[in-house]
Amino acid sequence: MRPFTYSRAEDEGAAAEAAAGGATFIAGGTNLLDLMKLEVMTPEALVDINRLDLNTISQTEDGGLRIGALVTNSDCAADPRVRADYAVLAKAILAGASGQLRNKATTGGNLCQRTRCYYFYDTAMACNKREPGSGCGAIGGVNRLHAILGASDQCIATYPGDMAVALAALDADVEIRSSDGSEKTVPVTEFHRLPGDMPEKDNILESGDLITAVTLPPKPGGTHVYRKVRDRSSYAFALVSVAAIARMDAGKISDIRLAFGGIAHKPWRDPAVEDILKGEAPSDALFEKAADILLKDAEGQGSNDFKIPLARRTLTAVLRQATGSGAS
Ligand code: SF4
Description:
The protein is of the alpha+beta class. It is built from 11 helices and 11 strands. The chain has a 5-stranded antiparallel β-sheet with strand order 4-5-8-6-7. Helix 5 packs antiparallel against helix 8 (about 165-170), helix 9 (about 270-275) runs antiparallel to helix 10 and helix 10 (about 285-295) crosses helix 11.
């Protein structure tokens, strides 16, 4: 590990000032410390933001929830309001990592976790995300975990998290404070980016930007499902995951929101998949049509070709479960 300086910020202004000077924020450190030990990330200065007043969950004026950026994953998943009204979020969080990691990992940090591409973590290998212009070891290499949608010829990595997949289905927003003190709010579906020709940039954060909270709209109702398919039953990243919130009315799907993990560089949401389902009576034929739409541009990279049929089967099983239309 390279030498670095460490300081604690007592308020958001001090944190922003430190970040404007080039410091990297640290909160739970559950991904950053690993990356520093491997010298994949080599910040010269860390500013600890754990003392900022960002660790509460509160009701918003419109009846939604505001989850502070420093609320731990464990506390978020255990909150009675989250469990009752946003069950897909609690389920997704509890599907990720381990109890010990969830006790340290924070809401803001979880959004910023980096890909688990093997080549990204191995500094001896080519990786455009770690070192722009060096190439991509995963293209033509070992790519079992990699993307089937939205990849580029520069990078085929996937976003590894679970929490953000549920947040995408919930239409959550991310609140961000910039180093100049200005504030902005972006939909979580626009927070992460596709790799394009800048795979080094995972999300829309600019230097010095601090995530302050995630806000959830009023409770969506309906049936909440989060299904994660992985190599082990715990402590493993998603090969494919699906978050679903479905509302039924008179035997038809009155509303449905679907988000997918493990298949792209960002939590994947495709309105066309939802549109074909809305207003229709659930059936296997309908669910297969939805999968056709989801996967029409899917492309395997060799070792991950299996993800295309796996995503189809996972989606159709989740749709059966969420709409109450048969065994899943
Ligand atoms: Fe790096 Fe992306 Fe290629 Fe992995 S897929 S080696 S993260 S450029």
